[in-house]
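Q: I have 302 residues here and want to know how they pack in 3D. Can you give me a structure?
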Amino acid sequence: MTQPRLVLPGDTVMVTRRTLRRHHLFRPDAAIRQLYLYALAVSAREFGILVHGVTLMSTHEHLVFTDPKRRRPDFLRRLHRLVSLGTKALRKWEGATWDHERTSVVRLLTERAVIEKLAYVMANPVKAGLVQHARDWPGVTVLPHELGRRTFRIERPAVFFDPRNRQWPDVVELSLSLPPTLEQAYGAQAVREAVGEELRRQEQLARTEVKERGWRVLGADRVRRLSPYRRAASFELLRDRNATFAVGRGQKKAFFAAASELRAFRRAYRQALEQWRAGLRSVVFPCGTWWMGQAHSATVQT
């Protein structure tokens, strides 16, 4: 049985999900860029999601956003379904597009964690040995100076999205926002500078690691020519521990507090679930419970 999800209003999270067997289905070309951004824009608008940063690699997505209305599971289900169906139509792909592993959702519990993960998302193409700098990535990405400033204006893709269906507008906009906690604490420009500094640090570490491994940087031109039907050949540890929260470097006190909160939530959830299974429908599930409230109308503590 999987662990229960802790879903709280106002959470800022980093999401990662991979393609099936790491096929290059999201090879960075104009069509996949349009498809992904359109799906992201319509899904974020539907569920009130605040998008901060995104990088779409050829084999996986990285997305950082805030969920003010506690609609994260609905949003991700919608986004990933649209991207999957659209990719199947675009690539003439049969079968599943996403990996069968559960989507990685990491709650970012400190300001430091948000800064580090925004930079991590941006630096991912460098860490993978694909380009020298984050700014060189030819696919969907967001750079520090664009945080809270950039607006994507995306026309409806020619595939999958039926122009006769009114839920798919001809053009949709996606305006990036700054993480609310960071903007309130530091101000917009200071946030961009902090993320930029962290990005430079992570890029340098990534280039050093690529060199030590003896990799040759592929480069943007060769990345664009990758076959979407080939699989990534680099080693990747499968079924590693799936983190559920991050606090950033040097945040020991915050780490132990977060771990204690998570253990308490899971313990209270299990106790409530046992009572529910025993037939006690008046049981109250702990604050942050999502599925039992949505699927079974169970009472959830507010």
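Q: Anything worth noting?
A: The longest helix spans residues 252-277. The CA atoms of residues 126 and 278 lie 52 Å apart.
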